[in-house]
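Because showing beats explaining, we think one record worth quoting, sequence and backbone structure tokens together, and here it is:
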Amino acid sequence: VAGAIAVLVGMAATPLAVKAFNLPSWTLVYLLAIVYTDALIAVPYAHLRMTGRAKRYAVLRLLFIAVSVVLNIALIAWLRVGVEAIFISNLAANLVVLALFMGEIRHLFRPRLLRGVEWKPLWRYALPIMPAMFAVMVVENGDRMVLNWLPESVAQSVYGMTTKDVVGIYNFNYKLGVAMLLVAQMFRMAWTPFSLQHGRDPQAPRLFSRVLTAVMLVCAVAFLGLALLIPSLTGIGFIHRYPTSARFWLGV
């Protein structure tokens, strides 16, 4: 199903990318490939979490990061590929992890198990998650999509640069908040198997309440710490000189 959706959207990549998002058509093609490979490795990742194989899970996650970072450096710094390098690196890292997951996929791929399955509980669980994850995607990416429509005249008069430069500088500074994203992602990864294992426990509401209260406190500390310290951190000499131009810090 995911493959069919990816093919259909890919066929309409050019009008969708240009008219809906004001982006080159190749960006949507890469994005579809990345999302599709993400979907293929999501179940094996979930299986590792559900079976408590933390070491293999952590190794594959770290491998994904390593492959992505190395390819980004090689393609951007050495080969001067440009923005396309980010998409290529992400897709290549997904394909490496997918190749290492082929053993688990062959073991888990049993279509006969779909016969006679009770779909109602699955949909009851999945349907609320779909709009929730869509909301997460909008929060994480919607700002840059909207900023991409900033008129060139406004970008030049307010910032003295092109719209693409504004988006790039904003995205550079957005990455400074990655620590907050890591906190949220670590909780998400642990929460799904935990909630499924304890969902039928009579004390589940009280347990979940305590967990979410603790998470909100941790997130509040992380958020306030980042918000207060980032301007000071960017003023440190070797950090401030890291980007090729001081204009990058306009996004702080």
Remarks:
- The two ends are 42 Å apart (CA to CA).
- The chain is about 80% helix and 0% strand.
- Residues 28 and 140 are 17 Å apart (CA to CA).
